[in-house]
Amino acid sequence: MKEVDPEEVKQILTRLKTVRGHISGVERMIEEDKGCEEILLQLVAIRAAVHKTSVIVAQRYASSCLIDAIDQGEDRQGALNKAIETLMKLNQ
User: What Gene Ontology terms for biological process does this UniProt record contain (predicted)?
Assistant: First the structure.
């Protein structure tokens, strides 16, 4: 991601560190034989944090990377189709 606002970078890295913390927590919970409900709730938190990070990056992609591709001479319709295809993967 080029030319990213430093605040955006900070926000993305903070969210990823949160995910890392949740994953470490789940590992400990499994090692400590915690209950399935507790573990599943942490996995839901991990999924939500990853999704929020994906949304931030997708917004950046849609507002900047797509425009950059078109400005650099990429076919407009091709760039749009590629962007739609990439963004649709977020919902799979």
Answer: negative regulation of DNA-templated transcription
Domain-embedded: residue 1: no
Domain that holds residue 67: 6-91
Match 């919970």 to its residue by tokens: 29
Instruction: Please count the structural domains in the chain.
Output: 1
29-75 pLDDT tens trace: 999 999 999 999 999 999 999 988 988 888 887 777 778 888 888 88
**Strand, helix or coil at 4?**
coil
Give which of 53, 1, 46 is closest to 23, Cα–Cα.
46
**Measured distance CA(33)–CA(31) in Å, rounded:** 5
Q: What is the helix, strand, coil percentage profile of the chain, to 5?
A: 85, 0, 15
| Burial (CB count <10 Å: 0-12, 13-18, 19+), residue 49 | buried
Residue 35's CATH number: 1.20.58.1000
